[in-house]
Amino acid sequence: MLLLALDTSTRSASIALCSRDECISEYTWFANGNHSVDLLGHIQQMTAECKISMPQIDAIAVATGPGSFNGVRVALATAKALSFSLKKPLVGISTLEIIASQQQHCRGPVCAILEAGRSELYAACYLFDESLDSNGELHYRARQLGDYLLFLPQQLAAYMQEQSPSWFDSTFQAEDAGLSVPPFLFCGEISEASRQALHAALPEQSHFVRGVFSMRHATTLAALALQRLHEGKEDDPLVLEPLYLRRPSITTSTRKRPLLGGTFQRPTGQPTTEREEGALRH
């Protein structure tokens, strides 16, 4: 099976052509705000270099967010168009799961983070279950702990401390010298201010992956999508939407839903902005 994976969730973007056994090609670049300009050109260049025509592609995978409102939509619209035109299966994967899965060898909890603006963070926490198949190959499966989150760093730390007793059994506490919260590995596009705030709130329970090792790679997206296809799972292009944890502040919607694309936690008592409230009234 040959799969094309597309991820333009943030200023860093990545695309890849992968089979079940190998990465045939990958482009990862700093797109800044040029996702719509760069994406199709890079797809054309990649397929030409690999001497692969678009009908030869068997499936499409796409990162669904959260992230840049426009960036997420560029990859999603392209993936859905390709899925429709080529009549190929489509798989959508959360950008936060992609970030966390790049640290799947970590035996403890992993918290994937993206900067959301307004000093807030998009976040989701995961554990990875490890299994060994009959050929001796290790396989990892992400298990999400709780909901997708939109919090200030201090509120995220407080939420993790509050929820940890329900997430972990006593083995974690014993292994970690009786700490009430096991060490979390934070990874993703984290600003220095957010890093300092998280470390100050969780001084003994926060470990961080250096930024260069948190960069998303579409090969990770491809591997997750291939696993889901192997299990017979795919998404309907007609209903697959971006995972937005809040509305874009410059956009109104005709649908009277406070949020799009998933369950999340907003800090108690935190009001929406005037622009958000205006969007909800329309």
Describe the structure.
With 282 residues, this protein is of the alpha/beta class. The protein folds into two domains: 107 residues, Nucleotidyltransferase, domain 5, CATH 3.30.420.40; 112 residues, Nucleotidyltransferase, domain 5 (2-Layer Sandwich), CATH 3.30.420. Helix content is 34%, strand content 27%. The protein has nine helices and eleven strands. The strands form two sheets. The chain has a six-stranded mixed sheet with strand order 10-9-6-7-8-11. The chain has a five-stranded mixed sheet with strand order 3-2-1-4-5, with helices on both faces. It is globular, with a radius of gyration of 19 Å. The termini are far apart.
Structural topology:
Layout lengths: L2 E5 L4 E7 L4 E8 L4 H15 L9 E5 L5 H18 L3 E4 L1 H7 L8 E8 L2 E13 L5 E14 L1 H15 L2 H6 L8 E6 L2 H10 L4 E3 L2 H4 L3 H13 L33 E2 L8 H8 L1
Parallel strand pairs: 1-4, 4-5, 6-9, 8-11, 9-10
Antiparallel strand pairs: 1-2, 2-3, 6-7, 7-8
Helix pairs in contact: 1-2, 4-6
List keywords for this structure.
9 helices, Nucleotidyltransferase, domain 5, 11 strands, disordered C terminus, 2 domains, 282 residues, 6-stranded mixed β-sheet, globular, 5-stranded mixed β-sheet, alpha/beta
Termini gap: 45 Å
Order of helices and strands: EEEHEHEHEEEHHEHEHHEH
Unreliable sequence segments:
256-262, 271-282
Number of domains: 2
CATH architecture of the largest domain: 2-Layer Sandwich
Number of strands: 11
Going across the biggest sheet, name each strand in turn: 10-9-6-7-8-11
CATH class of the largest domain: Alpha Beta
CATH topology title of the largest domain: Nucleotidyltransferase, domain 5
Q: How many alpha or pi helices?
A: 9
- How large, in whole angstroms, is the Cα Rg? 19 Å
DSSP helix fraction: 25-40%
Shape: globular
The averaged pLDDT comes out at: 87
Strand content: 25-35%
* Largest beta-sheet characterization: 6 strands, mixed
Decide which structural class fits the backbone. alpha/beta
